[in-house]
Amino acid sequence: MKKILVLFILWIFISPNIIQGQNLETAVDELILKSFNDENGPGGVFMVAHHGLPVYQKAFGKANLELGDKLAVDNVFQLGSMTKQFTAVAILMLEQQGKLSVGDPLSKYIPDYPNGSKITIHHLLTHTSGIKDFTKMKSLGDIAQKEMTPKMMVNFFKDEPVDFAPGEKFDYNNSGYVLLGYLIELVSGEKYEDYIGKHIFDKVGMTRSCYASDRKVIKGRAYGYHKKESGYVNKTVINFSVPFSSGSLMSTVSDMLKWQNALNKNLLLDSAETKKAFSRYKLNNGEEFSYGYGWHIRDINKVPTREHGGSIFGFKTMAVYIPGEDIYVIGLSNCDCNSPTKVTGDIAALALSFLSGVKKDNH
């Protein structure tokens, strides 16, 4: 009789969490399969984590169409503009060490930069510099496959007419983040790739993350694709020295969770510097905009979120973090025909309804 009573009590406490987990899994599956439903095409990998631990992770579609290899949850994807998170945090790490200040003018580090005395590091971080975005320049095709140094990249766009005065508008800008990568090199004395590898990836334990390369053999690489009328084709090749610190990192969903956990634990930044990354800022006219340093600061159903996506030839990515509930949702796709942006947001909203109020001890 005692045994039956103990089992009954255990069932009362455990079964709601099992049912909840099953329901969450089924609901997330349904959301993903609305878009990622081609078993024989490229697909995506998705993860939902709660209190730093995965509660859902699955792969859909193929990692390599030529070989027919299925995607796995540990495949390595190009992150595209999610790279900007790492660039922003690296800048804040250097500020924390007293090597720069986000209020510094660009001219302090690049004396000949046009209008550099009025453009600050803060403007670069928040996409409010007014500098021409190199991805919108018609001449980009001339350099897309060339090996460029950071200085060459800066010289490529620095003399272009500005779009507006610094601080006047928010306008998403890749050139600003290329400049930030160049500043990291000038201030630290290390190559951007090495700085991120040594001071972030190694410190956080992101062993599957790296600066992108089409030549290196990268274990577990997911290959990128476009979709044409005739079917899927291999991604357009670019030289990763062109997107550089605005979009050239690679990672896995597990490593990205390590990254999120490291930020939460102040492993890289103290609380004051972390607050700078996740604050909203104002334009010259006092109007607030919804971008911090490397993250969009938004909300889902009035619950605050930190979000960023990425898009680079053959890949699209998206991640949403809900700090109030410690929920992290990430989707990585290996076809730029299939964006995970909406589905990742929808999963985050779903996870919020399922996991809100569930305490850490339940995992």
TrEMBL record:
InterPro entries: AmpC-like, Beta-lactam-related, Beta-lactam/transpept-like. Gene3D superfamilies: DD-peptidase/beta-lactamase superfamily. Residues 39-338 form the Beta-lactamase-related domain. Keywords: Hydrolase. Pfam families: Beta-lactamase. One of its GO terms (molecular function) is hydrolase activity. This is Class A beta-lactamase-related serine hydrolase. It comes from Chitinophaga silvisoli.
